[in-house]
Each structure stands twice: as structure tokens, then as C-alpha cells.
Amino acid sequence: MRSTALLAALLVACACARPRPPDVAAGRAALQEADRAFNRATAERRTEGWTEFFADDGAMMLPTGTITGQAAIRERMAKAFADTSFTLTWEPQQADVGAAGDLGYTLGRSEARFRDEQGRPVVRTGRYLTVWKKQPDGSWKVARDIGVQDPPQARPGP
Amino acid sequence: MRSTALLAALLVACACARPRPPDVAAGRAALQEADRAFNRATAERRTEGWTEFFADDGAMMLPTGTITGQAAIRERMAKAFADTSFTLTWEPQQADVGAAGDLGYTLGRSEARFRDEQGRPVVRTGRYLTVWKKQPDGSWKVARDIGVQDPPQARPGP
């Protein structure tokens, strides 16, 4: 009887202490949703919407250099969004998260639109890769962001 | 006495079942070392060295398009390495891994060297972001790889 009680106690303790299997599919869906919220915030609030999705030590890896930290990111993007014709939108296509649910990535297609010096509308499409890190408050924030532009399309002649 | 034995059993069971805290610093160092091994393999065995570091469903996000899977990656890189003047080297500067030690990224500086059509040496530097996923055999493989080139330097006149 005593050994039965011990065994029962062990089984209960094991069941309580065992980490639950992470729900990877749910984690991937949550991360894609975070990426869509990032896109909506940027569409609605431009520089501030973009900046607030970065972690304090997050970085943008641009062709012209890597911009690290919210203050530097805000300053850089304020220059881009100062052009009122400039919009940047994207849509995630894939996401993955680690088994602990604290690190993951999204990737997808992006579209930048603006007007050139002659006022003609320009569309530049590309693909991006964003690494996300879960913050102490449970929110996902951008740790690293990088993108490549598609090759320029052949333009119709004048 | 019986309750003491139960308590002891519970404590032992909890201690055994509790997941160990992951060693994040060691994980980061291991991932940087995997990235350096990737660089060495590519320097030594070119197309095969590059290709074997990708996961079966790994992808290269190039400006000209995303190449997915080892077979397609091998075919694409064989074209690049067919130019015997072409070398691609890199050095990781940062790495991070999730708490479960199964997903992480490296980033760093890259350098491509080749000779142009006139035989003049060309050096193109850039930065890259690589997402790694631990495989069932315990090895780290590349899940996603992307890079941006630095802006071209002003060239000395003829």
C-alpha cells in the first residue's frame, strides 16, 4: 500500500512537472498574425507603427547599413515616410517558431510604392525575412529584419 | 513518516522531471561555430560544401528569386561556382538561439570575389542573415538564407 501511494505520488508529480508539448502550428499562426499586425500598424501610423514593432535591440539590415535600436530605426524611417507618396506593405507567406515558442521567423512578399522625381508612380516588390523574439510581456517583437528587391521589370517604352 | 516519504518522493520526481535551463550562451557559440564550418566547407568543396549545409527544405532568398531544396540549391550554386574565379566567404558577427535550442540565427559580413568580363578583380561585400534549424540527428542546418550587398564603392578613374 505504501509503495502504491509513492508510485501514485511520483506519477502525479511527473505529470505536473512535465513541460507541455508546444503547439508549433499555433505558434506559427500567432507569428504570422503578429507580422500582419506589424503591416497594419505601419499602414496606419507609418514611422511609429513600424518602430514600435521592433525590440529595443532590434535591427534593420538595409543595403546602406544596419540600423540598430528603436531610436535609430525611428530616425531612419521618419526620413522614408516623410515622403507622403511612400507606402510599404507586406504579407507573410511562411512562419516557423522554436519549440520553446520564444524565437521564430516570418517571410513573405513586400511592396513599396512612391512617386519618382517626375511624379511617376513606382512600385518595387521584394521578399523579406524577419526574425522575431518573444518579449518578457509575451508580445512578439522584431529582432532582425532584412529584405531583397525583385529585379526591375522591363518598362514599357515611351 | 508516511507523509515525509511522500514529500521526499514528490521532491525527487520534480527534480528529475524539471527541464534543465538551456545554456543560451553555449547555444549561440555552437551556432556561430556551425556558421564558420559552413564557410569552411564552401571554401573547400564549393557547390557541395554550400549545399550540404542546407536542410532538405532549406531556401536561399536571392534577389532573382527564392531557391528551395537541396537539389535546386545545388543546381543554382553550381552555375556560380563554375566560374573558377568566384569565391564566397563570410564571418558571423552575432547569433541567437531559442530557449529550446532548436531554432536560431546567425548574421555577419560576406565577401564575394570574382573577375569581371575584362578579367579585373571584383570584390562585393555585404551582410547576411541565416536562420538555422536543428535536425533530428542533432546537427544545425540552414532553413533560410538571405543577404544584402553593400552599396558599390566609388571606383578610381582609369
Explain what the structure shows:
The structure is a homodimer of 158-residue chains. The first copy, chain A, has 158 residues and is of the alpha+beta class. Chain A has one domain (22-149): Nuclear Transport Factor 2, Chain: A, CATH 3.10.450. Chain A has helices at 2-17, 24-51, 70-81; strands at 54-62, 65-68, 87-97, 103-115, 121-134, 140-149. The first copy, chain A, has a six-stranded mixed β-sheet, with helices on one face. In chain A, helix 2 (24-51) packs across helix 3. The longest helix of chain A has 28 residues, at 24-51. Chain A starts with a helix and ends in a 9-residue tail after the last strand. The model of chain A has no long low-confidence stretch (mean pLDDT 89). Chain A binds chain B through residues 2, 5-6, 9-10, 12-14, 16-19, 22, 61-64, 66, 96-105, 107, 127, 129, 131, 133, 143-144, 146-151, and chain B through 2, 5-6, 9-10, 12-14, 16-19, 22, 61-64, 66, 96-105, 107, 127, 129, 131, 133, 143-144, 146-151.
Radius of gyration of chain A: 22 Å
Number of domain modules of chain A: 1
- Strand line-up of the largest beta sheet of chain A: 2-1-6-5-4-3
Mean pLDDT of chain A: 89
Helix content of chain A: 25-40%
- Overall shape of chain A: elongated
By CATH, the topology of chain A is Nuclear Transport Factor 2, Chain: A
Measured distance between first and last alpha carbons of chain A: 93 Å
Number of strands of chain A: 6
Question: How is the quaternary structure best described?
Answer: homodimer
**Name of the CATH class of chain A:** Alpha Beta
Second CATH tier, the architecture of chain A: Roll
Largest sheet composition of chain A: 6 strands, mixed
> Could you say which structural class the secondary elements and strand pairing of chain A correspond to?
alpha+beta
The secondary-structure element order of chain A is HHEEHEEEE
Count helical runs of chain A: 3
Question: What percentage of the residues of chain A does DSSP assign to strands (E)?
Answer: 35-45%
Report the uncertain regions of chain A.
none
Which two chains touch over the largest interface?
A: A-B, 41 and 41 residues
